[in-house]
Every structure is written in structure tokens, then in C-alpha cells.
User: What shape does this take?
Amino acid sequence: MPSEPIIHGMPYFPGRASGRLHPGPDSLTGQHIALITPGDIGRVTGLPAGFLILDPTPFSHAMITLLGLGIPTVMIETAQAQALHAGMPVGIDGMTGEIGINAEAPARHASPPRRRPGGRLNTADGTPVRLLASVRSAAAARQAAEAGACGIGLVRSEFLSPRDGTIPNADFYRCSFRDLLDAAAPLPVTVRLLDLAADKLPAWLPAASRLGEPLGLQGVRLYHDRPIQQVIQDQLTALGELADTHSIRLLLPFIVRLEELQCWQAMAHRRLPDSVRIGAMAETLAAVLDIPHLLDTADFVAIGCNDLMQAVFSADRDEPRLRHYLDPYAPVLFRLFRQIADSAGERMDRIQLCGVLAQIQGVLPVLLGLGYRNFSVDAPFIPYLADTIAGIGLSDCEALAADICAARTTQQSLEILQLDPQRHPPFLT
Assistant: This one.
């Protein structure tokens, strides 16, 4: 960084940028570093050179949306922001979390490392790893293919909605899914069936039917409700027709019990050709602790790390006051992932990790060391994560994972990962 003094934030998306500090989401340009809160993200107009996120909720849907932009981003606390003022020159480094005040470099994005589309990926000692992309649009699917993804690991189909707010039907999904599948071609695509929850509601859901915020009222638990029931049928109709010409897998969201999986898997099988593999999304403790039985029934299991962390730490990922409870460096979290891997045994190749966790600085090598090989991440991250994978050997990852699982506190984890604790606020302040 070219400037002093330095503020140590927490990195969120890699790359360097500099510009004039612009508080708020309005009228942003490439000459600005935007200082916003997670609540501002949906109101951003224009694209800045970089983002500073105040009091962040890194696992929230709002911030996941931000990741798809591929813009250098650093997270900071309110106390750190006291040194920042509108209009001052600021430089940020989304890889280290450093923020330089009075930066003089022109606003710019750092170019990510280049990857060959669909290229094979191995660790330094030859262990194959698959990086897939999580997307919500045809444009994102195209970006994923260009970034080197080996497949689309998760289509968030709930974000495909008619612009006029009407309830989507089979014709709408036929067109939307075809556009996305064509954009991703020749990559295989996993479509998650509609996954609604209180924090992601479409405009077409009637006000009288809108969800409140009871714990776990989401995913397949809503499939008997109207009009959701019909929307699900229309999604399956469209996918069934497209499966003859495209490589498609289906993912059932928020499966908790084996009986649920059997019920909804049978329903989907009645509407889809036999060629479509059907998986379960495990996002609760009950689900991940029953991984062996889920694997007996499902063709594959995708672990939703964002919602799983909510369950593990009993903390709403959209609530800023609870953000430090969702700790991606807590040793207990990795002991849970070790338990899951041990229970899956030789079937680990049928498990895929989804969500922000693998994208957090220093975490991917630990997950590799625990035995995970399939990751669905935001497309702009793929070149950076590919570089991490290619630059480390599996034996080093395994040693790192063992040390993290043996640790007692987050502070110890940060020391093992050689991460500056200043960039990662303490759990209790």
C-alpha cells in the first residue's frame, strides 16, 4: 500500500483499488471507494473502484450479492471508520485487508490470475480439486465458465423471477434455465430447486403469504404452500424438458431428515428423466450428522456452510450484532467438518461445500486437509482459489488441519494460519 497511516481491516474480496472515499451507496463511480453498510448494498447505484463495508455481516445474502461483482472489498468496524472522512484519498487491499489513508495511486482493479476455462486443477503434489461456481443468472454462469470453473455447482433459482413481479410459470423457467444452461455450456449445471426464506423473498409472493422469521421456515418445508407448490412443479417441468439436451443435476434445499429427502426425491423423480441426479442440501446439524444415511439415498450432498454456521453458532447471519459469533476461524467449526468427513469416509467425492467459508482468507487449505475436494464458490474467486490450491501440497494442508482442530481458541487458529489478529476482530470486545 502506498500510504500511511494504515488501518487493518478484514479482507473480503481480493484486489487493490484506490480513490476518493464516498460514504453511502448513491452515485458511485470508478473514482470512488464506497463506504457502506450491509443494509446499503441493495441500493448501490454505479460501480466504485472498491468497497469498505462497515460493521459487516460476511455470510449474509446481501454481502454474497456483493461478491458477485468481483470488486476489491475490505470489512471494517465502526471504531476504525472514525479515521475516515468523505473525499479523502483512500487505497485498499482486498487480499490483506489493509486500508491506506491519503493514497495517491489512481483508482484501479488488480487483475486476477488467469485460468483456462474448464481446466483441470491439482494441488502442488497432484491431488485433484474441483472448483465450481455458485450463480444466480446467465451472466454469472458465463462469467464462471470464463473464470475456469469446472461446473456450476449451485444455481440459486429463487433469484430467477419475472421483471414485472408476476408468478413465474413453466414458460418463464424454460427460457431462464435454457439461457443459463447455454451460457454455462459445456459445463454441467446443478440447479437448486426454489429455496425461499424470510431473508430472500421474491416480489411475486403475495403479501398475505409472505414469511415471518420463524426458525427454519424455508426450503422444502414450504413446498406444500401456495403458490410455491405450483412454482416448484413448473421448475421441474422446465428442467425435465431441458435435461434431454443439457447436463443437469437437481438439488433439494434445506433437507433435515431422511424422510424429507425420500419424499421430495420421489416427487422429483416422477417429473424428471432418470439421467438427472438428485442431491440433498445439508444446512443443519441434524442433516450433516446424518450424512451417511443421506448419501445412501441421495446421489450427492451439498453442505450449505452459511446456514450451517448459523445453526452451529445460533446466530442470524444477517444480524450485525451477532456477526462475531459467526466465526470462520473457530476450531470447533473445523472439528465438526472433520467429523462430517470421517463419517462420509470413501464417499467424500460425493460431498460438495457451498458458501462463503472456503473463500475466507486461509480457510481453503484447512478444508483440503480435512478431505474436501469439491467447492462451489462465487465465480470471481475461482482464479484466486485456484492459485492457492496449485501452490500448496496436500501433506501441508493435512498438517494445518490437524493443528487447527487441536486448537482451543480463534486466536490460536489465527496464529497457526499466520494471520494478523488485528485484521480479525476478537470474539469478545
